[in-house]
Each structure stands twice: as C-alpha cells, then as structure tokens.
Design a protein that fits this description.
47% helix; six-stranded parallel beta sheet; alpha/beta; Rossmann fold; globular; single chain
Amino acid sequence: MFSNSLAADLSMWKFQVPLLTGAGYRVLRYDNRGHGQSASSPGPYSIEGLTLDALELMNFLGLEKVHFCGLSLGGMIGQMFGARYGDRLCSLILCDTTSYMPFPEIWDERIEIARKHGMEELVDATIDRWFTKTGQEHLRIEVENIREMILNTSIDGYCGCCSAIRELDLRLAITGIPIQTLIVVGEQDMGTPVSEAEFIKERIASSSLRIVPDAAHFVNVEQASIFNVAILEFLWKNSCGER
C-alpha cells in the first residue's frame, strides 16, 4: 500500500508497480485526501485524519494487513499508522520523511502563497527540493510530468495537508511502532535530511536505515532501481503470508 507525498498523486509510484507485481505482490496505490482523484474536504486536515482515511480504505477493500510504504507526507501517515494500528501492518517503509515539524511558520507561508497565487508560485521550489540538479537534467520527461502533477494539485487539498504537516509531532508516538521498519532517505534530501531519518531509526526499535546516494527527496523516482531493490529485499525478509 503506497501513500503519496504532498502535492503528488498515486502516479508517483509508477516505477515501483511493475517490479512488485512481477514479484507476485498485489499493489494498492491511493490518492491522499485533496490530491489526485480524491475529494477535497474543507480543511484543515490532520495526520490522524489522513491515517484514518488509509485505515478505512483498507477496511472497505477487505484488507486485513498490508505492507505500508509512504514518502514525505505519506511517511508521516505511515508513522501514525504504525504507532496506532501496527497490528494491521506486515511491515512499514518510511521514505524521506520526518517525525517532527519545528518551524510551523514555513507551512503558514506556503498556505498563503497557494491561496494567493496558486501552485504555479510553488512548483519551481518544490522541484528543486525533490530532485538534485543532476536528476533534473537526466530525468527531464519524468520531472516535467511531476511538475504537471504539482500544478494539478487542488489548492484546498494542498493547504489542508500543509495544515496537517504544520502540527506534526510523532517523536514519542513512533517509539511504540512494533513492526519491522525500513527507513529510506536520499543522501541529498534537504527537506527531510539524513539526520531526520537517523532520528526515526533511533526511535523505532525494529528498524533499519538505507541512505541512497545521488538522490534528493523523491528517491523512488530519482534512483528508482536502487530504491526498488532495497524495498523488495526488505519485503522478502518480512513476509505477510500469501502475496
């Protein structure tokens, strides 16, 4: 089960689907509230509410347990899911994420920009956070597709999720995550740097950390091959019964 980042949709995981289905897994991708084809309810949102969205989707589809993988906002949801509903997870993969937001004013500024000027005012800075300069040059088509994905994000959905991120503090909660957890981070991620991934690893007892070179925030796209091998090896070690 894949959970997308802020200003993204389920298509961000397209490089993972062929690998996993080829290995015999069923893959569930979904759009977080206010993103992609999911409706935008009035904000503000909360990480608790976004986590309940994921849990209710599982219940609706009759899925007792899943391997949960989330990046950035999706990783925040994954942390809350693991802490509160760990019995519904086989394993957890947290990518380029953080457990705490020390500067809430950043998110107030982004909300204001989005409300006044739209996603066009935010897209260039977002791309620069998500990809290294080398990645932007080598993956021009993919980066352009992701640029369009950002621009197509609902303003209400973006601002609602910004509000959820602004209030984030899972530093204590994640110490209760009971399941095997893989933490993945791009070595050049400036938004949720390696130090944040290391902090999460220290807090989750059954966890391991993989630092991916030559990648920023969107590690699953910029270094898809390395990322795919890492998660597939982890999944094989943490079977959930039949795939």
